[in-house]
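As the next step, I wrote out a protein sequence along with its fold in token form, included below for the reader:
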Amino acid sequence: MKIILTNEVSGLGAAGDVVEVRDGYARNFLVPRGYAIRWTKGGEKDVEQIRRARKIREIATIEQANEIKGRLEGLRVGLQVRAGDQGRLFGSVTPADIADAIRTSGGPDVDKRRIEVGSPIKSLGAHQVSIRLHADVAATVNVDVAAS
């Protein structure tokens, strides 16, 4: 099935790309989650609009990505969350929470869709999070989760 990606999907492509995937993958995963729309002749007009929006958000050069990586890796991010007696969180820390914490601690604006949390953060303490800045550049940020 031919689809148009509306968000970046690792291993598949970036927003605005037209890709061919298996029917079940598109029907059951990509389309319901809003990562893609079905390809149609009328949808080709949407591709240009998606690509323009991607260029505005995208980090243009590797040098710029490396500069942002240096700023992020030198940053210590603290997050205050509600937790139980044994250090377990009520819920988990989301990429949106991490993006807000980076912004409030003086770091650059980071798109929450570029933040990759390996396993869900559900406990207090120090955690490492990866941020994809460019196709070839990723930054690792230390996040300290503390009880509020």
Notes: The beta strands are 2-5, 18-20, 36-38, 76-81, 88-93, 115-116, 121-123, 125-132, 138-147. The chain has a mean pLDDT of 86. The chain is about 30% helix and 30% strand.
